[in-house]
Write a structure and sequence with these properties.
The complex is a heterodimer of chains A (416) and B (356). Chain A is mostly beta strands and 416 residues long. Chain A has 6 helices and 27 strands. In chain A, α1 crosses α2. Chain B has a domain of 135 residues. The chains are: A mainly beta (416), B mainly beta (356). Chains A and B meet through β5, α3, β13, α4 and β14 of A and β2, β4, β5, β6 and β7 of B.
Chain lengths: 416, 356
């Protein structure tokens, strides 16, 4: 096939020149003309279609994202400039290969026809829905195939990816969903300059493997026009097949400049079939505790995740403008005894539980004058705490008007 | 103790599917039934126990969670079904030390579908973190504690081992080990009143015995910090490097080794009460063998802001600012997106929160 397609335009021209004096045309010139002009049974300039990967395991009860790179080779000579595929077909791998789903997306690329073979590369991500896999299973098939036919000049050449059916645990690693929020559970934040802020990404997946992604940020210097995302931090984490959700925490997000910021987590491997969601936060000027959330307040003791002892003191840094300090202790809805250990990467209390706990009144605390930056819990305050529970504590600085204008980040505290 | 049980009837294709897009429904599957249950037992042997004058907390627990092959919950539409999990765990907390241990075994093909294989996954995990309680000296005011030169340290380490075996062969899966993986993570952070620095290291290895995907070895190092120098200057550097090596790729695939380096710094300086300046630079370099990657990006931004009229309750505030950004990307494999992009803006922002 390759040798018959090696006929070039130069041989055709030579054959035509020979015909001008056809009575004296050489047999070789006539043969060349016949070969050039005869319908070429293998005139397709696309010679091969090789997908990568050639196989991807799919699960019967959940959608599977299949990312395919089609490597297409076009031979030179009698070719157009455009190689395309109008649609993809998902078939059951049984009998006469019945069609289970049509992927209507067209793939097209143009490169000028030259004197050498031309490689084309097409990338796509296709979601194989659960019902398609289930339908194949009901037909008695142990797998499916995903086919695409590519052509420059017809006929087309078909490539296919094998999709054997297995369970989700044994299927290839795929990301099915990505949800972004800030560390208080909100999808939009307005805060003051130099506030602490992080984003959380909840990834739903099937299978297991190495997750590769990049946290990216667009700053006010570009969000006023065309947002330009710059890298913030890489994500390279192994995700175990046991489990179906993974929570990733961003690095501290900048809050130095006033303006609109956009944040996203762009997953690069396995490539998802959706665009990365984007969340936004606005940094502004205003009065802490009123137009803007309170200013940050540093605390020293007790350290994070400490257990409350009889001699535990709460200490914090002094802050200008405080008229009083308030230590607040909040009950967390799920206590440590029922919080199952995340197999590798989670926190004892997730951010939603923190936000929920802080939305309710504190169960106990202490109120001290501005001259104090250290206090133990009184016996009356301790009486409100239940043994064997996890609590959150924070310190607030109160101004002249009694409004909290500064507060610390909540920390875990356990009762023995 | 806690338990849940649920049953669902789910129609996976709704009103059916038009498989060839000719406007006619070609196939309509009946609804599938699925059952699931979860049970949890946690035992806390004692309360108020002290060891060495420090409180000791210990939990022991066991969990079983079985989700049928065709179970589908509308409350968790992306949840993965077809799991039978047994897990035992323990959690110990004492004097700043937190220790977690867990061991799990999970099988699939819960409904024993003949055409599906069955796999068994075993996973073991241990994690420890230690935040020492420091004996802090007090400053001259008699109240403010003084942190030592290393600040408030916190250390963490974890190790996870996983092995997945095919116990009932079917489809393309033969009996035997399917994959093995391990990951080790170490971290340390040192916090001060107004700044911190942290370092993290992780090593992950996966071995794909069935050759559906390449073996991978990933090595990630991360350094991060934030410094507030005096009351006017904030400096935030960051450095991260990862090496991902692929070995033994599937047939007709090539292995890709990619090294990614991300480094940058941001600085913010308060010139006066009303004028602030700042700048940031971020460098990202990705390169690897087998023509897998060769890209470099440089991002620079700078700004200066002047709060000409700060907002108050009776009058709006006006802030003027000049901001600019520059983005440059070069790709050794393609020329797509190689043109640098820059933007400069002069802004006026009006802010007001009146009170009447």
């Amino acid at each position: 096939m390759a040798s018959s397609l090696a006929i070039t335009s130069s041989s055709l021209c030579a054959a035509l020149r020979g015909l001008r004096g056809w009575r004296a045309a050489s047999p070789s010139a006539l043969a060349a003309l016949v070969v050039s002009l005869a319908p070429n049974l293998s005139s397709a300039t696309v010679s091969s279609v090789l997908p990568t990967p050639t196989m991807r395991v799919v699960a019967p009860t959940q959608a599977t994202t299949v990312s395919v790179v089609w490597n297409v080779m076009r031979l030179p000579g009698n070719c157009g400039d455009t190689v395309s595929s109008s649609q993809g077909l998902v078939r059951a791998n049984i009998g006469n290969l019945p069609i289970l789903m049509t992927v209507p997306r067209a793939l097209t690329q143009s490169q000028l026809c030259g004197n050498a073979p031309t490689p084309f590369t097409f990338s796509e991500s296709v979601i194989i829905p659960a019902d398609v896999v289930l339908r194949a299973q009901r037909l008695g098939a142990s797998g499916l195939v995903f086919q695409r036919a590519f052509a420059d000049i017809p006929p087309a050449v078909t490539g296919e990816v094998s999709l054997p059916i297995s369970s989700a645990a044994a299927a290839g690693f795929g990301v099915t969903r990505e949800a972004l929020q800030f560390d208080n559970g909100a999808a939009l934040r307005v805060l003051g300059r130099h506030e602490d802020l992080r984003a959380l990404a909840e990834i739903a997946y099937s299978g297991g493997g190495l997750l590769q992604a990049m946290w990216e940020l667009a700053e006010p210097a570009s969000t006023s026009g065309e947002p330009i995302f710059r890298p913030l931090a890489q994500v390279r984490e192994f995700v175990a097949p046991i489990g179906d959700k993974k929570v990733l925490k961003s690095p501290p997000l900048p809050t130095d400049a006033i303006g609109l910021y956009l944040v996203r987590l762009r997953i690069t491997d396995p490539a998802p079939a959706f665009d990365a969601p984007v969340i936004r936060y606005f940094v502004g000027d205003g009065r802490p505790g009123r137009e803007l959330p309170p200013r940050p307040l540093g605390v020293y003791e007790p350290p994070p995740s400490a257990t409350l002892a009889p001699d535990t003191d709460f200490t914090w840094e002094p802050i200008t403008g405080a008229k009083a300090y308030q230590v607040q202790i909040y009950r967390v809805a799920s206590d440590g005894s029922t919080a199952l250990p995340d197999l590798g990467y989670g926190e004892t209390i997730n951010r939603r539980e923190i936000a929920r706990a802080l939305s309710r009144p504190p169960v106990t605390g202490m109120l001290v004058t501005a001259q104090q930056t250290r206090t133990p819990l009184s016996a009356a305050a301790r009486a409100h705490l239940v043994p064997g529970q996890i609590y959150l504590w924070r310190v607030q600085a109160l101004g002249d008007d009694g409004v909290a204008f500064a507060e610390s980040q909540p920390r875990e505290l356990r009762t023995p | 103790m806690r338990g849940e049980i649920a049953q669902t009837h789910f129609d996976f294709d709704g009103d059916g599917r038009d498989t060839d897009l000719d406007g006619v429904i070609d196939s309509n599957l009946p609804e599938e039934s699925g059952r699931a249950h979860a049970a949890l037992v946690v035992y806390t042997p004692w309360h108020d126990k002290q060891v060495g004058g420090k409180p000791l907390a210990l939990n022991l627990g066991m969990e079983n969670r079985q989700i049928g092959t065709y179970f589908r919950s509308p409350a968790n539409p992306v949840g993965v079904a077809d799991r039978d999990l047994w897990r035992a765990f323990t959690n110990l907390n004492w004097s700043g030390l937190d220790l977690q241990l867990s061991s799990a075994r999970e099988t699939d093909n819960v409904d024993d579908v003949p055409l599906l294989p069955q796999t068994e996954t075993r996973q073991h995990y241990i994690a420890a973190s230690y935040t020492p309680t420091l004996e802090l000296k007090l400053a001259a005011d008699g109240q403010t504690p003084l942190l030592p030169w290393f600040g408030q340290p916190s250390f963490s380490a974890s190790r996870l081992n996983m092995q997945q075996d095919v116990t009932k062969p079917a489809s393309v899966l033969a009996e035997g080990t399917l994959r093995e993986a391990s990951t080790t993570t170490l971290g340390a952070s040192f916090m001060y009143t107004s700044w911190y620095w942290a370092v993290n290291q992780s090593i992950s290895d996966t071995e794909e015995r069935a050759a559906f995907a390449p073996d991978t070895h990933a090595y990630v190092t991360q350094l991060s910090a934030s410094f507030r120098i005096g009351s006017k200057l904030t400096l935030t550097p960051t450095l991260q490097r990862s090496d991902v090596e692929e070995r033994d790729p599937p047939v007709e695939s090539t292995d890709r080794d990619v090294r990614t380096t991300t480094a940058g710094a941001a600085v913010d300086y308060l010139l006066s009460e009303t004028v602030t300046t700042g700048a940031s630079y971020m460098y990202n370099r990705q390169h690897g063998g087998s023509e897998s990657a060769d890209a470099t990006t440089n991002d620079v931004s700078a700004r200066i802001s002047w709060a000409a009229f700060p907002p108050s309750e009776t009058r709006p505030g006006i802030t003027l600012s000049l901001e600019g950004s520059y983005h440059e990307q070069t790709d050794g494999l393609t020329t797509f997106g190689d043109d640098p992009a820059y933007q400069v803006f002069m802004k006026a922002a009006i802010g007001w929160s009146p009170r009447f």
